[in-house]
Structure formats: C-alpha cells, structure tokens
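thought: fold this chain, then report.
action: predict
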Amino acid sequence: MRAVILSGSGRYADPWHPFAETSAALAGIVAGAGYHVDVSDDLLGGLASLGDADLLVVNAGNPNTPIPDGAADPGPVRDDEIAAASAGLDAALERGIGILAVHAAAATLPEVPAFGHAVGARWIEGVSWHPPIAEAHVHLVGSHVIADELDDFTVFDERYSGLRLDEVVEPIAEHEEDGMRHPLIWAREIGHSRVVYDALGHDARSYESAAHRELLARALDWLSRVPAPTFDAS
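observation:
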C-alpha cells in the first residue's frame, strides 16, 4: 500500500505548528501500519499527482495566516494549480481512497472545496478556538469500530473547539471544555472513500501517547479497507 503525506510548507505553514516534526512522527506511524510512505511539502502538486495512492494524510495549516518568520513569501497560488489539485482529489475520491486529516488540516486547502467537504468541518476564524495546550482528557464516544474496546486517554495537546460541522460525521472522541462536549475525532464514508479527522496533533508530544498511537493504528486499518462498500437501498 502507498501513502502520501502532505506536510505544511510555504503558504500552508504558520508560526505555531512544527509540521515537519509532526509529519515525521505521522510517517513513522503510517509506515508501521504497512504503508510505503512518501512525504511531500507541495500540497497542491501532491493532490494533483495522487495517482493510485491508497492513503492520503494531510497535516498542514491555513494559507490565510501569517507565514513563519524568515520564510519567503510563496506568492499567490495559480488557477491551473488549483484545477489540477481539485481534479486529482476528485479522481481519488471517486475510485476510493483513505484520508487521514489531522489538527490544522481543518483549516487547510480552502482553494479545494472537495477537501473541506471530505473532512466534514472547518476551522472558522473568530469562531473556532482552543484552550491553552496542556494535558487533555479524550473521551471515546459512539460505536465506531475504530474505538471498539478502547478506553479514554490523556494526551498533551491542543483541543480544537467550535469547529463548524458542515456534514454528517460519526463521532469517535470528544473533549469537554466549559461544561460542553466538542467533537475531536470522527469518521466519514463518502462513496467508495473513507475519511478520519483527528483534531489532535499540535506537536510531536501528541504522538508520544501510546493510546493516541493505538487509536491512529485502528484508524489506518479502517481507512485501508477501500473502496468502501456501497449499498443499493432499492
């Protein structure tokens, strides 16, 4: 199986997330699940050239936030790059692909609406937020096979809150803040494709949690079972 990890760089980098570090941690986890892993920091080019990849992992930031200090201005994105990226993702979704989107991926690739649709939610500036990074308690919820027989766990991480859900999602984990539960990890099936969004993963400490790694291993196993079956309700 072949996995492509798209890692935040250029316009998809920001001052807060060490994408190279977290993408390296993810590459180790994905390789441990049996994938041959290619890591690229060219998000649009990577989508355009997905080809027959079995898994897409997106770990990148919002292109509308400041670029890191000292980084060169990447300039505006070209229309032909967007068109090629959209076509590549559309083709992959049509044939069936597993997609794992992590943390800031809820805000990335706004130029490619099909990606936000696949994830099922977006980070909305001025609405979405997170408490200070700290030891966080993750509540397993629902009945999805990914979480079957797993227990709640703690992890040092940011807990994204107030994401705008645009699609129906199947919850896997939540966190509690100010007396409210917020979705944290969920799964979706779109035609022949499968998607997991994991709002954890601010930095490499997140992936030092054995329980988080186990949950990701379960997610990768589920994502590997594509094309997902479809059923005729007639």
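thought: worth noting. The radius of gyration is 17 Å.
final: tokens above.
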